[in-house]
Amino acid sequence: MFGSTIVDIAVGLFFFYFLFSVITSHINELIAAMMMWRANDLEAQIRHMLGDPNLANKVLQNPVITTIASKGEKPAYIPPNTFALALFDAFVPEGQSPNVFDHVRAGVADNLPTNQATAAVLKILDRANGDIRQARAGAEEWFNESMDLLSAAYRRRMQWVSFFVALVLTSVLGADTLAIADVLYKEPALRAAITGAAQAAPSNASVQGTQGTPPGSGSSLQQSVDLVSKSGLPFGWGTLPNDPIGWFKKVLGLLITGLAISLGAPFWFSLLKEISNFRGGGSAPASTTSAAASAPAPTTAASVTPPSLP
What we know:
The protein has 310 residues and is mainly alpha-helical. The protein is built from 13 helices and no strands. The longest helix has 42 residues, at 132-173.
């Protein structure tokens, strides 16, 4: 019986870590959009790839790229084939065709400075054996490899942002893991309600992973906020500790919550799904995911619409 109670408390905590993670993910995306991190990082990476400011300007100002973003804004994502088209178009002078391999090859030799980018482009063209389609495929692969490096760097940055946002959110809301666990232990009815909602989440949730868009729909964010506010758990700063030990426990509880939230909604959703499958003796319905490749985007996030508490 005691073991079952501990498991139920853990499930309840995991569920609220998940809900807080959804809220944190939306805040992260708002910060990233305001700072234009994706667009600025993408432009900087392309300029680093090409190594020549004039060539980079030609590529970035090509209509096939400028029309991707809203008017007056930089694109936050460029498809690999679009980059290859703009790149080859920048090589050839006016009046020549970027679809003719020899024109592209001559343009590279005449217009690019001698640097690592030049060597990379020439190697791509040499491997194409005169086939412009193979040359474009090579340019797309080069672009994808560069975007993989950029995505890794972007994820590292967003992990730090997520950690900071999680700590701030936890501190503002007073979401103390130790206090929440204590209430779940002392109130069986509340524990049962929250555990039931947590175990229903994987089967009732709608999951969609999309890079370049905020993780979770607006409705999932609102439902997460509603569930947190109506849960009956001890959030807020209504009662303050009155001794050093109490403050130590409070700070420790807040820190645990912040660290847990920073792991992200997909982590907690997967964990809840595993627990649900284990207790239910079977697999939960398969979820659908999609990921856009070659974008300087953060870690793929889950959009999950949690169920209502009983």
